[in-house]
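lol so apparently i was supposed to do this last week
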Amino acid sequence: MKKTEQLYEGKAKKVFATEDKDFVIVSYKDDATALDGLKKGTIGGKGVVNNRMSNFLMQILEKEGVPTHFVEELSERETLVRKVSIVPLEVIIRNVSAGHFAQRYGVEEGIVFDEPTIEFSYKNDDLHDPLLNEYHALALKLATKEEISKIKAMAFKGNEVLKAYFLKLGVRLIDFKLEFGKLSDGKIVLADEISPDTCRFWDVNTNEKLDKDRFRRDMGGVEDAYNEMMRRVFHE
Ligand code: TMP
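anyway here it is w/ thymidine-5'-phosphate bound
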């Protein structure tokens, strides 16, 4: 299927229409932002890593019964996906304290939780993606009760599958962010991406960070971290 007009350009991806209204093409860029868009840069090769890794992980999740928007990888940076309307919630699952969790509650990073946590933020740049709970999401009509309960089940199931998968690669899945979309028939599917931009990955032996925190925190070795994750996933 061929690209027609550009529908949208986000911080890390562009989305193009196709000749079929039910499908769009996503094109991954090397651009990176952090700290609510204040920090801008590029991470060489990131678009390729995120596209290939996300597609690979979505196919694993599909096999395990988590429906996704993925259809077909078209090239290193481009993927055909089912067109969805994005549910305006960022769904964050955490297995270990880090990032905003550690900051918000005044605890150190690296505390292993007995059970994974889930949190939602309202996907709204003008409001800086404020944290909200299920009742707020319902009040704001961002999703229905049934949709939220499906989203929670898919997010926790995804966590179990991905946690076990990454552990085999010597990687601890600390936390990650998912986004969900609605197909034209109302079915909820996993959308957006699963990549070092949207997950925290720590090496199982050294706890070395292998994700976008290296960019967010000016740690250096950003490209190397993305390449290392690519190498582990694709056994290159
Ligand atoms: P946080 O600790 O900053 O809330 O991030 C939790 C996880 O969500 C982490 O793996 C990074 C990911 N994330 C995004 O993908 N996009 C975002 O805008 C934010 C804030 C976090």
